[in-house]
Design a protein that fits this description.
By secondary structure, this protein is an alpha/beta fold. The chain has two domains: 40 residues, no CATH class; 192 residues, Glycoside hydrolase/deacetylase (TIM Barrel, Alpha-Beta Barrel). Helix content is 39%, strand content 17%. The chain is built from nine helices and twelve strands. Strands 4, 5, 6, 8, 9 and 10 form a six-stranded parallel sheet that branches. A two-stranded antiparallel ribbon has the order 1-2. A two-stranded parallel ribbon has the order 3-7. It is globular, with a radius of gyration of 19 Å. Bound molecules: zinc ion. Zinc ion binds next to loops. The site of zinc ion has 5 residues, from loops.
Length: 269
C-alpha cells in the first residue's frame, strides 16, 4: 500500500468513523499534528440514468465525436496522450480499470484536471457476461469507489471489457446503479497492433456526428496515431467532446470536492 493509499484510506475511514465533523490526528515526521478532518464522504449513488441503458453511438446533429480510451491509466502512454490532447484542446473519455487507478492515482488527477471524463471499465477487467450479478456489481462498485476517493468525482457511464455484457446485465446496472453501458461505433482494433497510420485512418474514416471511437491508451502506436487522427477528424469538421458532452449531459460526475496537494493530501470541499 502506498502512502497515497494510506492517506486516502484514512480520509475515507474518517468519513465513516467521525461523521465528517471531528478532527483527525495524523502523524507527520517527528511531531504529531492535528489537522481539520476533511474526509471523503461515502461514495454517492447516481440517482438518474437519463434513461440510457446501452448505446453504441449518440444520435445527434452536432458535428462532434467522442474519443474513448480504455484500460489505463498507463504510467507512460497516458501522460503522453494527455500532452497530445492538450496540444489540440481535444477532450476525451478514459474508461479506467480500478486496479490501475489505485496504482497511478496521480495520472487520474491529471486526466480530470485537464477536462477529460472518466468512465468505469471494471476493477479487474473480467468478462462480465460470465459473471453473476453480485460479481458484476462488485467490479463496478470498487471502481466507482476508487475514482471517487481519488478525484472526488464519479463515473456516470461504464464500458464492459471486450464489449462482453448481456442485455440483462446492462439493464441491471442501469436499474441498480444508474450507470449506462457505452459501447462504440468505431473500433480501431488497435490491440491487434496494426500500426499508427492504420489506427489513425480508422478513426478518421469512422468519424461522423455522434460517433464513439474506441482505442486503448496502453499502446504506444495508438498514442502516436492521435495527432494524425485528430487533424484528420478536425479537417472533416468534427469537434472532440466527452461521452457525457456528446449525450448533452452537463457534467460527468459530482465535483463538489477538490483535490489539494500538500503534506496530508486531503480533500477539501
Ligand atoms: Zn478493456
Amino acid at each position: 500500500m502506498t502512502d497515497f493509499d494510506r492517506r486516502t484510506l484514512l480520509s475515507g475511514l474518517g468519513a465513516l468513523c467521525l461523521g465528517g465533523t471531528a478532527s483527525l490526528s495524523i502523524s507527520s515526521r517527528a511531531d504529531a499534528q492535528t489537522v481539520p478532518a476533511v474526509p471523503m464522504p461515502p461514495v454517492p449513488r447516481l440517482t438518474h440514468s437519463h434513461d440510457v441503458v446501452s448505446l453504441t453511438e449518440v444520435r445527434t446533429n452536432r458535428p462532434a465525436v467522442a474519443l474513448t480510451f480504455d484500460d489505463g491509466p498507463h504510467p507512460t502512454h497516458t501522460p503522453m496522450l494527455l500532452d497530445i490532447l492538450a496540444r489540440y484542446n481535444a477532450k476525451a473519455t478514459f474508461y479506467v480499470i480500478g486496479q490501475m487507478v489505485r496504482r497511478y492515482p496521480e495520472i487520474l488527477h491529471r486526466i480530470v484536471a485537464e477536462g477529460h471524463e472518466v468512465g468505469n471499465h471494471t476493477w479487474t477487467h473480467p468478462t462480465l457476461s460470465r459473471l453473476g450479478n453480485p460479481s458484476v456489481l462488485s467490479e463496478i462498485d470498487r471502481t466507482q469507489e476508487i475514482v471517487w476517493r481519488t478525484v472526488g468525482a464519479l463515473p456516470v457511464t461504464m464500458r464492459p471489457p471486450y464489449g462482453a455484457i448481456t442485455g440483462r446485465q446492462s439493464h441491471m446496472l442501469a436499474d441498480q446503479r444508474s450507470i449506462p453501458t457505452i459501447m462504440w461505433s468505431v473500433d480501431t482494433q488497435d490491440w491487434r497492433r496494426p500500426g499508427s497510420s492504420i489506427v489513425a485512418d480508422r478513426m478518421v474514416r469512422g468519424a461522423r456526428a455522434g460517433a464513439v471511437i474506441l482505442a486503448h491508451d496502453i499502446h504506444g502506436p495508438t498514442v502516436r496515431a492521435i495527432p494524425a487522427a485528430i487533424e484528420g477528424i478536425a479537417a472533416r469538421g468534427f469537434d472532440f467532446v466527452t461521452v457525457s458532452q456528446l449525450l448533452g449531459w452537463r457534467r460527468w460526475g459530482p465535483r463538489g470536492l477538490r483535490y489539494v496537494s500538500g503534506p496530508a493530501n486531503e480533500y477539501r470541499g
